[in-house]
Amino acid sequence: MRxxxxxxxxxxxxxxxxxxxxxxxxxxxxxxxxxxAAMGSAxxxxxxxxxxxxxxxxxxxxxxxxxxxxxxxxxxxxxLGARSHTKTQILEGLGLNPQKTPEExxxxxxxxxxxxxxxPRDGLQLSLGNALFTDPQVSIQDTFLSAMKALYLAxxxxxxxxxxxxxxxxxxxxxxxxxxxxxxxLVKDLDSNSIMVMVNYIFFKAKWETSFNSKDTQEKDxxxxxxxxxxxxMMSQEDVYYCLQDRALSCVVVGxxxxxxxxxxxxxxxxxxxxxxxxxxxxxxxxxxxxxxxxSQLRLYLPKFSIAGSYQLEKVLPKLGIHEVFTSQADxxxxxxxxxxxxxxxxxxxxxxxxESGTKSAAATGTVIMLRSAHMTFPRIVFDRPFLVMIxxxxxxxxxxxxxxxxx
Length: 408
Known about the structure:
Mean pLDDT: 80
Largest sheet: 10 strands, mixed
CATH class of the largest domain: Alpha Beta
Pfam family, one: Serpin
Number of strands: 17
Structural class: alpha/beta
Distance between the termini: 46 Å
CATH superfamily of the largest domain: Antithrombin, subunit I, domain 2
Organism: Loxodonta africana
Protein name: Serpin family A member 5
Low-confidence stretches: 1-24, 28-42, 360-376
Number of helices: 9
Helix content: 25-40%
CATH topology of the largest domain: Antithrombin, Chain I, domain 2
Family: Belongs to the serpin family.
InterPro entries: Serpin_CS, Serpin_dom, Serpin_fam, Serpin_sf, Serpin_sf_1, Serpin_sf_2
Order of helices and strands: EEHHEHHHEHEHEEEEEHHEEEEEEE
Radius of gyration: 21 Å
């Protein structure tokens, strides 16, 4: 009888709430402190953008929303129990070169990151966690369990997979509790062949540094495509924001800060330039943006939106070179002595709500021109066509959430 290893990831993205006026953070100075060793700013970001492109390719024209941090954390945990070529594929998919960088460094950086992100912050709820649900009848390697607890702060629970209905309820109840009821019924199907379910969750709720006035929200046109226009509630606010115009990528970027040192980047491609922006995003571009952001007075028009994403990653990750772990060739002998186990399913769910109170390679010759306030009138930036959204933790520059709003 084949034993299956089921890996489930979940995350909940932001619902925003209100806040006061304070744009005291200096992004340019913080960019100089970009942590090269911490989960690998570069590794995690390029993985994030590569995965984003794979998701867009699999579901063109649709809203996209996911957590690169949640998925990369889960893959890193899985690599602890993987061996031989299975491990190499996972590490290389995450952007790590096992021959040049010790695997231990990856896990230590995740450990530091989880500890950093778990610190209490004013005006921000950010909770991350990992859990293992294991069958008591199956012997799990002590070294794997110890590493999961020490490096990824993972809780471990016995689960009777011989009773699939009961096991499913146990796991789904845990997920619902940890995500404040926002993610329910994560696990849809379990059978008695399952031996483990691994869960990673993120709950994020933050307040804008300056809330939008709901009285200024009006119904406006949103151009889903050249042929389709829908009415959406459009928020507006005149304030100081971080902004820039990237002419190499043909887009405008506005940074709207939350309390608690996180920031939402809203990326508005020029008309007809969405594909150019999507193909050009990478770690170097993001690093460049952080360095040259400037604060400018402008009137921002941003639609209220609520989108959700649900993805079967076993169908998407092979595009990033991670495929053996989902096949009968998988080597997960670092988890258990059983030789016939594989990951049967990898589920990722995410959702985001944005409202008035809060909530988410350029060519070498390319130049970036920043927006500058006019003397008499302030620039207007109107997000009335498909755009990208990225929620970044300021101190580590890790991408918590990444998405595309095609239809608010």
